[in-house]
Amino acid sequence: MPAKDATVAVLTALRTAMLADATIQGVTTQIVDTPEAKRAPPFIVIGPSESETFYTSETDGQDLAIDVAIYTRGPTTTGSRTVARRLREIFHRQPLTVTGHNVILVEVLTTIGPYQTDEEQLLQSIVTIRVLIGHG
What we know:
Blueprint: H1 7-19, H2 22-27, E1 31-32, E2 43-55, E3 60-73, H3 78-91, E4 102-116, E5 122-134
């Protein structure tokens, strides 16, 4: 991780933006960092994340890829699809305020699912969000 690690600040900003969104709140207000075995769906888990340092002639920074997992109860996939679509709308190439850091780019890289997990009628979708932070 780079000396000016922005991971916690980025995760906090993503969570804050999700909690402020009425569409996501209409599906769930449970947005957590780690899944708990007995948590009742629907809920969203932010993380894990991958981070790489980058350097250019003008700046250095951090390139983060954060998985956002959406868990809903089937048989319908409506809630999962609604949240995944909304994450794309609020984050893909949209501004994101990260306290103490310069956000260069935010984009949705992939959306997977919904698909059934091992637990009966528990559906999961994963949206991967890239956040490019400049430190210089």
